[in-house]
Write a structure and sequence with these properties.
Blueprint (H helix, E strand, L loop, with lengths): L1 H8 L9 H9 L2 E5 L4 E3 L8 E7 L2 E5 L2 E6 L4 E2 L1 H6 L6 E4 L3 E7 L14 H8 L3 E2 L2 E2 L15 E2 L5 H10 L4 E6 L2 E6 H8 L20 E3 L4 H11 L3 E5 L5 E6 L6 H15 L3 H8 L2 H10 L4 H22 L3 H4 L3 E6 H4 L10 E6 L10 H17 L17 E3 H13 L6 H9 L1 E3 L3 H4 L1 H8 L4 H12 L5 E4 L14 E2 H20 L6 H11 L4 H28 L6 E2 L6 H29 L2
Parallel strand pairs: 11-12, 14-15, 18-19
Antiparallel strand pairs: 1-8, 2-7, 3-6, 3-8, 4-5, 4-7, 9-10, 12-13, 15-16, 17-18, 17-20, 22-23
Helix pairs in contact: 1-2, 7-8, 7-11, 8-9, 8-10, 8-11, 10-11, 10-22, 15-16, 15-18, 19-20, 20-21, 20-22, 20-23, 21-22, 22-23
Length: 606
């Protein structure tokens, strides 16, 4: 008893208790032992009614597999969940054999609980400001934010629809049409009724936007932000699991800066009538990414918003620029690399490709004029502050701009002879592609690589290329670092941390014939198809998310400070927890690489 009193009484928040309350506290203490690896708090627990203090050993706190905190002797945990009544969204696990002092809610038995120094935290949690120790920004469920649905019949007049919306104090109404669910917003009234295009006595369906954009009610505020930015809208219809509309969420309901700013940029992009105006709108992007980060939006969502805004900039450039040669032939602009996967870093450059329909044999080859006009488009992107690929993956290059038949012939050649110069590199780059315009034509880049009969020689060579990216595990401060040049002694987290996972996920995409989505999406499909075990997929995903978040944070700090970002880190500048987690992630990724290398053939036959 005395040992516990001396231990707890000497550290916050218990050092503010008087002697009698300290005795009461100690009487309620229970000692819990946890073996290394044991789960102390699970993510799926419904409610926590006690807190813990670490007496011996060490514990780790994980958010979706990523270590976010390390708890040592004297550290308290569980109190935020206890005080707020919120279920835990983090997992706490013993990193080594540990003893913890378990204490039930002290407010129930202390004479003066207000002397505990975490009572200020309690007030914050009751206001919804804190949970799991972090500010709740962008992760509220839409079910908590949505507004009631206002409905109109298809044959109701525009006047009746407007009256119904006004009477409900709403800004939109839903209408069922023969072609699907539609939505009527203030924008539709201004666009179609105020301009005289549709009269007030016309059926309401004539002013509706069909189909209405929907989102699930269990989605988060951040997910709604991304969907709004991607589609340039200010209303979403919230549906339950059966697809039935149950509410509407508006941009003004998501009233935080992390929601408003990207939509303002998107509106400015769509409203730009010149490249100069577009450049002014695009220049807001870096500051907005910083704002998103400061407001607690996840790294994955920041990357996706970034990609969506770049998509909008390129589309607007294409609509503003007059390009006769491109206009005369069916064509598709295609994004490559991290933008294609929708996971760029703040300073990522733009990798692009171009594919056009084969012209009639009787007509002259338009390639030269098409590439000239593509270069003008790329120059406009540069004016908007977007950097082109320094390694040449640009849509005006003959390597990355071809007719459909030219792309098909090139892909077949790479597959037939993967030893030819740059065959594997180009196959990998083309596999990471996402058509932005004319999607069916744009898929000609990848359909041969993803679906054409591929030899085992090609798949093995492509795997060797992917495994060439190795995590920097070593013995100098636990990492392999550069030994010369301007980055001497530094660790490149992009090539050593992201690239090994991206490359392996890309190989999985080619083998499975499905390259949709992000690196994490590909890893999950790899687990479902048997190309990876679930544990391997989780290991790779956790390592990717950790390194991506580190790099994004690092680059955004450079943007804020007006300095040039880099993907290089000095190992000694990383804190102990970060170094430890990186070391473990790198070794785990290397182990998965070894396993795939060893039995890749067996995995293909599953």
């Amino acid at each position: 008893m005395k040992e516990f009193a001396d231990f707890l009484g000497g550290q916050p928040p218990f050092d503010g208790l008087d002697a009698d309350d300290l005795v009461r506290l100690v009487r309620h203490v229970e000692v819990e032992y946890f073996a290394a690896g044991a789960v102390v708090v699970a993510e799926d627990e419904t409610r926590i009614d006690h807190l813990w203090v670490v007496r011996t050993g060490a514990l780790v706190v994980l958010d979706r597999g990523q270590v976010v905190d390390l708890l040592g002797v004297g550290d308290m945990f569980g109190h935020l969940w206890l005080l707020s009544g919120l279920p835990p969204r983090l997992l706490v696990r013993a990193d080594e054999e540990s003893l913890c002092l378990r204490i039930p809610d002290p407010r129930a038995f202390l004479a003066n609980p207000e002397r505990l120094r975490f009572t200020a935290v309690e007030a914050a949690t009751r206001r919804g400001a804190l949970a799991d120790g972090a500010v709740l920004r962008g992760d509220r469920r839409l079910a908590d934010l949505m507004r009631p649905v206002v409905r109109c019949a298809e044959l109701d007049s525009v006047r009746d629809a407007a009256d119904r919306i006004s009477a409900a104090g709403a800004s939109c109404a839903l209408v069922s049409t023969a072609t699907g669910l539609g939505i009527i917003t203030d924008h539709d009234f201004r666009l179609r009724v105020a301009t005289g295009r549709v009269g007030v006595d016309a059926p309401a369906a004539r002013v509706a936007t069909v189909p209405a954009l929907t989102i699930r009610e269990d989605a988060t505020q951040a997910a709604a932000l991304l969907r709004m930015v991607e589609h340039g809208v200010h209303h979403l219809v919230v549906c339950d699991r059966s697809g039935r509309p149950v509410g509407v969420v508006r941009v003004v309901d998501l009233a935080q800066a992390d929601v408003r700013d990207p939509l303002l940029i998107r509106s400015a992009i769509e409203g730009a009538t010149s490249i100069d105006q577009l450049a002014e709108a695009a220049r807001l992007l870096p500051a907005t990414l910083v704002e998103l980060f400061d407001n607690g939006v996840s790294a994955a969502h920041i990357g996706a918003v970034h990609a969506a805004i770049v998509d909008a900039v390129l589309r607007r450039v294409l609509s503003l620029r007059h390009s006769p040669a491109l206009g005369a032939v069916e064509h598709s602009w295609v994004l490559l690399g991290s933008l294609a996967r929708q996971e760029p870093l703040p300073m990522s450059d733009i990798d692009t490709a171009l594919v056009w329909a084969d012209p009639p044999e009787s007509e002259p080859d338009p390639a030269a004029m098409i590439r000239k006009e593509a270069w003008e488009v790329l120059r406009d992107l540069q004016r908007c502050g977007l950097a082109l690929c320094a390694k040449g993956a640009n849509a005006h290059s003959p390597v990355f701009s071809r007719s459909r038949s030219g792309w098909i012939a090139a892909a077949r050649g790479w597959q037939h002879d993967p030893t030819q110069e740059n065959a594997l590199l180009l196959s990998a780059m083309v596999a990471d592609s996402r058509p932005l315009t004319n999607v069916p034509l744009g898929r000609a880049l990848t359909e041969q690589i993803r679906t054409h009969t591929r030899s085992n020689q090609f798949l093995r060579a492509l795997l060797d290329e992917a495994l060439g990216w190795r995590p920097p595990t070593g013995f100098v401060r636990d990492f392999v670092v550069a030994h010369g040049g301007e980055h001497r002694g530094q660790l490149d987290l992009k090539s050593g941390g992201l690239a090994p996972v991206v490359a392996l996920a890309r190989w999985i995409a080619i083998v499975s014939g499905d390259a949709r989505g992000t690196t994490i999406d590909r890893l999950r499909r790899g687990a479902r198809s048997g190309l990876l075990s679930q544990d391997e997929a989780d290991t790779l995903a956790g390592g990717f998310e950790n390194v991506y978040a580190m790099l994004l944070r690092h680059e955004l700090r450079a943007v804020r400070g007006g300095t040039t970002p880099t993907t290089y880190f000095m190992p000694r500048e990383l804190d102990t927890l970060t170094r430890r987690h990186l070391r473990e992630s790198f070794r785990a990724i290397a182990l998965v690489q070894t396993r795939v290398d060893r039995d890749w053939w067996r995995r293909l036959d599953r």
